[in-house]
Amino acid sequence: MTEAIRQDYEVSSEGAVRHWSVTNARMEDATPTASLPAAMLSILPGTQLCGTLLVVMATQSIVDFTCSMVYNHEVINTLTYNGGVANTWGAINEGDPIYYDRSATMPAGVNLSTSPADQAAGANALFGYAVLATPTDVYPKGGITTSTHDVAVMQRGAGA
Asked: Are residues 47 and 122 located together in one domain of the fold?
């Protein structure tokens, strides 16, 4: 059998890029901001589809859900909550999981943390993993007190 590339099929050496239009009302943050992390609402906490907002319009946004795409995001080093308040913090290391944190106590413009659970003990969705932004990037970032850091995050996206 002869192999052939169909006319309606496109091949990329970087894998499938998944830029998708989503309804703002179906996102965790119904008033999204371009370049910030995004998570879709889900019937089961912790299973939200996550990506990075590219374009924000009145009722819809374009989100990059591409698996393994790397974006710089602000990440707070919260590890756990107790009684609805951030309780412990730790250094962010290369390879650490980064979560879309649904807690209402998150600083403005910050949606990602190192905590697998939110302030109400609900599961946070895995957003991706901390990676090197450049060969000169340095880990660990932060320590045992609360701090927010610019972290290169390889997003889990769709298809992971």
From this structure: no
pTM beyond 0.70: yes
Local confidence band at 3 (pLDDT 50, 70, 90 cut-offs): low
pLDDT over threshold 50, residue 153:
yes
What is the tens place of the pLDDT at every residue in 57-80?
Answer: 999 999 999 999 999 999 999 999
DSSP single-letter state for residue 144: S
| Owning domain of residue 113 | 70-155
Query: Which of 64, 97, 117 is a domain's end point?
Result: 64
Give burial (CB, 10 Å; 0-12/13-18/19+) of 68: middle
Question: If phi over 0 gives left and psi between -120 and 50 gives alpha, with beta otherwise, what is residue 105?
Answer: alpha
**Number of CB atoms found within 10 A of residue 29's CB:** 16
Do both 107 and 144 map to the same domain?
Answer: yes
24 phi and psi, to 5 degrees? -55, -35
DSSP β-bridge partners for residue 149: 75
Beta-carbon count within 10 A of 9 CB? 7
Closest CA to 96 of 111, 119, 113: 113
